Amino acid sequence: MADQNDWTKPQAMAIPKEGYFKPEQGRYGPIFPKTPACYGFTIIAKIIVGREPVFYEYAKNIETAVAGQPDILAVLKLHYLRWVLFPIKGETYFMYQGIFDTDFDKYTEDAVAIFASTGLRTVFENLEGFPKDWQTNAPAFIKFLREHQRPSFLEYGEYPFVSADEIKKALKLKASFSQMLDQMQ
Amino acid sequence: MLEFDDIQHILLTRAPALNGRYEFLSFRDPAGGRAWLAAILERVQSVREARTSVGKDKRWVTVAFTWNGMRALGLDEASLATFPEEFKQGMVARAEMLGDTGANHPDGWVGGLASPDLHAIVILFARDTAEHGRCQSEHQKLIAQCAGAEVLSTLDLQATPPFDHAHDHFGYRDRLSQPVIEDSGEEPTPGSGGPLKAGEFILGYPDEAGPGPALPKPEILSRNGSFMAYRRLQEHVGAFRDFLRRHGQTSEEQELVAAKLMGRWRSGAPVVLSPDKDDPTLGADPRRNNDFDYGKMDPKGYCIPLGAHIRRMNPRDTAANMNRRRMIRRGATYGPHLPEGAPDDGAERGIAAFVICASLIRQFEFAQNVWVNDKNFHELGNERDPIIGNQDGTLEFKIPKRPIRKKITGLPSFTTVMGGAYFFLPGLKALRHLATLGESRR
Questions:
Q1: Which residues are paired to A46 by β-bridges?
Q2: pTM (2 decimals)?
Q3: Between the CA of residue B194 and those of B26, B45, B183, B287, B436, what are the distances in Å?
Q4: Mean pLDDT computed over B57-71
Q5: Chain A CA closest to residue B89
Q6: What's the CA gap between B360 and B365, in Å, rounded?
């Protein structure tokens, strides 16, 4: 069993094919486990032909949105998000990968609400099979995400199981100590 | 406009009742169930009726059905399939996610509530014991006339003394923070947030996200209806009082521990507005007793610990999309009062409550799964709701305090889930529709 309290020892975790160790149901389906790399998802879906330019435009929009409102995604308890486009046999696929501190199931409706209230929506509307009524049908949106989620079979953490809040606290403490030492000069 | 003539009274009114009775029913054949419904629905008050005659009425009746119950009445499979997945599955199937494991597991539930044979509930709120007795006897006669309808179990409710304000067996004042629905004619108390779109609680109206989701079919069945999560929660009053004595030398210290667990003094006064001692006048004042936030007034939890019950059940300004998570609560206490100082007599006592909302998965289940039972709520690491969370003796409760916080380890379980179920609360036209299902087929 992984030690979730020892951040000093890097850990790797092999994950069964199903994506979880024991079946445990969340509100919308199975819960994927917390690993040394915290919780996360990897969503892979085919984009609608010819829509690549929308994705690059979207990237600019997100950059602007986060700059204007840095806490816009705070509720999702994120560490990192990565958006990738790549070809398979001449077709373009989209990969959306997130590392965060709550399980996949918990804040999905909040994510949908953020998508609805910001420009974050556009990228999903350009994926094949994305439900057209997603704004009034959160369960359909969540079903789409789950159907396109590809669980990891291996994850690694250099500082395992540490949450973004703990990291931010540690950095704040370091800054406070620096300030304190400055005051002692 | 809200259709007050069609919405069951429980959604928008609070009956001035000191007594009550829940009867849980099973229908062995559709005709018997419909005969019962046809008779009882004449006694189910709408919001308008209840508001008009609340001063003289002595009893208030509510009727709701499980998904199995609507099938048992003869609702067609195509219509049944249009209900939300979590309602179709029922509370028992959702137990693990809700935190109903260990001592709270449905295997230990009483009254047949975990059985697929649970089909309906009839809720009686009565002004006094005499009316309670009269209604009980009338309903007994009605059931006897409806072959195929039977009573699985019953639960009698009564307020606990003192009767001048609503409170649970632990002594905490209740009914302090309720959402208000837009156009309902009610005004939110200060601190309760603005009125919310009706679709958050009543099917067929716009909600806080827009025009509202697709509804169960046919429309006559879903319009003005709602969903209701029932919870029968035993309160271990003796264990609770022992705990307070273990963690407080004086009665003042014990009251402070009780206040920290809840986030309010037992009088109802919020600890953030009265941090050091109780203020019963504040607790009883609806213009002041809900007027606070956490983000600005108590971000670190020095007044109300981050894991306290009210902080979990309504995180106010410290959670996103709060307008989509609100719930209406109704219910009452059951079981005998345990006088202060008396040893626990082993009798079951507690609260039997309903959470009413438009979406069980988005509102009730979210609150249970994320707010009540997430051990890492607010990064707490090893805590669940100290009052209603699933406690197995291995968790803790942290009380922020300068210079060093107080950490209580091995928190005991103060409550046990003794039963629960998901019900659909139809409007009055929908009740008539269900009562005449057989006729419409002929």
A1: A93
A2: 0.95
A3: 40, 27, 12, 14, 40
A4: 97
A5: A27
A6: 6
- In Å, the largest CA–CA distance within chain A is 64
Give dist(CA B153, CA B114) in Å, integer: 12
Does residue A148 sit at the B interface (CB-CB below 8 Å)?
Answer: no
Structure confidence by residue, pLDDT tens digits, A35-69: 999 999 999 999 999 999 999 998 998 899 899 99
Interface test with B, best of A27, A73, A77 (most B CBs within 10 A): A27
Q: Residue A2: pLDDT above 80?
A: no
Question: Which string of b and e fits B246-282 if b means at least 16 CB within 10 Å?
Answer: ebeeeeeebbbbbbbbbbbbbbbbbbbbbeeebbeeb
Which chain B positions have a beta carbon within 8 Å of A39's beta carbon? none
- Inform me whether the C-beta atom of residue A75 falls under 8 Å from chain B C-beta atoms: yes
Query: How do strand A78-88 and strand A91-100 relate by DSSP bridges?
Result: antiparallel
**How many C-beta atoms lie closer than 10 Å to residue B73's C-beta?**
23
CB contacts of A27 in chain B (<8 Å) are: 86, 97, 361, 365-366, 369
**CA gyration radius, chain A:** 19
State yes or no: pLDDT of B442 exceeds 50: no
Those residues whose C-beta lies under 8 Å from the C-beta of residue B71, and which sit 6 or more positions away, are: B77, B80
**Predicted pLDDT of residue B84:** 96
Please tell me the distance in Å from A4's CA to the nearest CA on chain B: 11
Rounded distance, CA B432 to CA B37, Å?
A: 8
**Rounded CA separation B76/B70 (Å):** 9
Q: Which helix (H) or strand (E) holds A88?
A: strand A78-88
The Cα B207–Cα B201 span in angstroms is: 8
| Measured torsion, CA atoms of residues B75, B78, B81, B82, in degrees rounded to the nearest 10 | -100
For residue B361, which amino acid is it? I
In chain B, residues 350-369 whose CB comes closer than 8 Å to chain A: 361-362, 365-366, 369
pLDDT at residue A1 in the model = 60
Residues of B298-308 as b/e, b for ≥16 C-beta within 10 angstroms? Answer: beebebbbbbb
- How far is the alpha carbon of B431 from chain A, nearest alpha carbon, in Å? 27
Q: Do the chains contact at B97 and A26, CB–CB below 8 Å?
A: yes
d(CA B228, CA B203): 12
CB contact under 8 A, A109 and B376: no
